[in-house]
Amino acid sequence: MRRVLNKKINKFILFLVIFLMTIGIFNYKVLKVHGYPLFRKIQHELILYKTKDYKTKETEHFIIRYPMEDEKIIDLVAKASEKHYKEVCDRFNYHPEHKTTVIVYDNPEDLMNNASLKQGKPPMGVYFASTIQILSPRLWIPQGEEIEEIFMNEGPMVHEFTHLLVDDLTRGNYPLWFTEGVALYQEYLQTGYVWGETLSYEEKPYTVEELTDDFHKLDMMLAYKRSFEIVKEMVEREGFDEINQLLKDLGYGRSFEAIFAK
């Protein structure tokens, strides 16, 4: 099924590119932002197909899928999902048209496979193709600890939901460091958590160019710290409306480097 869909998509994109080049209005970034929602929709449907046998629980703004018999944990995920929904959406002046899919796993390998993560330690949460995919808190919160308090204040829901909003608004047109910085800043606003507060740079902090071009090659902890710092500095200097305008410009297909240089 996946192979057939990919062939059809490739033929469609090829036809569209040739057509636009013929009439002289081909622009790669503009084409990318208009084609991106289709790719993401197909990926989303594939994930829903893979989890079609999962149980579901609906809240006002979320549909939670889960394979385990653990209603207490699912109720906690539902509570955490809704807790900051209004504040985060209001800040971006954007509310998703449809309910957001949240998938809770009790098997880290299933999360890695469904989120297309090839290697590394399974994260406690990840955003991928309009879905928030998380590990059951029981897998990463030590036994005997207060699960609800830790998950509500240190869990991934605000962070990953922010990624979804940024992805929607920009149509996928953003550098990785920027969406991480915005997500970490939202965590800071909602929970007071300051990423990398105890970390220090051995040399100069990373530049925007380094973050944009080599994010995966940098020290991950320091790269996230610097991403958070840059977004926080932008908001404190210009206000969050500046972030929203940047997201809107990116959604039109404009270059991040050109917009940020202003």
Distance between the termini: 45 Å
Q: Please tell me the total number of domains.
A: 3
Task: Please work out how many helical segments DSSP would assign.
Answer: 12
Radius of gyration: 19 Å
Broad CATH class of the largest domain: Alpha Beta
Outline: globular
Helicity range? 55-70%
CATH fold description of the largest domain: Zincin-like
Low-confidence stretches: none
- Strand order, largest beta sheet: 1-2-3-5-4
Number of strands: 5
Question: What pattern of helices and strands is seen along the backbone?
Answer: HHEEHHEHEEHHHHHHH
Summarize the biggest pleated sheet. 5 strands, mixed
Strand content: 5-15%
Mean pLDDT over the full residue set:
89
Structural class: alpha/beta
CATH architecture heading of the largest domain:
2-Layer Sandwich
Structural notes for this entry:
This protein has 262 residues and is of the alpha/beta class. It folds into three domains: 1-50; 53-156, 2-Layer Sandwich (Zincin-like), CATH 3.30.2010; 171-261, no CATH class. 59% of the residues lie in helices and 9% in strands. The chain has twelve helices and five strands. It is globular, with a radius of gyration of 19 Å. The model has no long low-confidence stretch (mean pLDDT 89).
Notable features of this structure?
single chain; 262 residues
Helix and strand arrangement:
Layout: H1 2-22, H2 28-50, E1 55-58, E2 62-66, H3 71-83, H4 85-92, E3 100-105, H5 108-114, E4 125-128, E5 131-135, H6 147-154, H7 157-170, H8 176-191, H9 208-214, H10 220-238, H11 240-251, H12 256-261
Parallel strand pairs: 2-3, 3-5
Antiparallel strand pairs: 1-2, 4-5
